[in-house]
Amino acid sequence: MRSIYFIILIVSFATCTQEKKNLAGSPSTESAAEDLGVKDSYKETNLIDQIKLVDLDNQPLDLKQYAGKKVFLNFWATWCKPCIAEMPSIERAQGILEPDGFVFFLASDEDISRINRFKATKDFDLTFVRLETPFPDLGILSIPTTLIIDEQGKIAIQHVGVQEWDNADVLNKLRSLSM
Fold it and tell me: How many beta carbons lie within 10 A of that of residue 121, not counting itself?
């Protein structure tokens, strides 16, 4: 019986390998979802109303105060090695894109004390916040996941996985979003 479950598991994984092009042209999974007719449930909603964040002093952070700006919102965890690996490129992209009207937040659902301990051991000049909304309620099924929210509070880009955010092609794509 276990061998049947094992075979089903292998077949399941093998069928989940369709790819799409991500921001820099490398493989990802969005077009596979489009090919299957999967609808982005947040595409027609104002995402800002769904995301509840607090700063590291446990004060609410209202994304509506950033209306008219583009919000780079990265979902991560202190234990996630790929999340941490992409942070240097996020930090460099932040320095490049802030003049273009971008604000950057890195949101973890872990305790504020744990996020603060992480921040104290790393030398990143990034704005870390705590996510109060459960990941699944936002459609976040794996991390790192990054949302680029446009000036009207809509998702312009959703990227799952590690990305070199300071890559020239990615920066051009981000800059090309309408203001």
Answer: 8
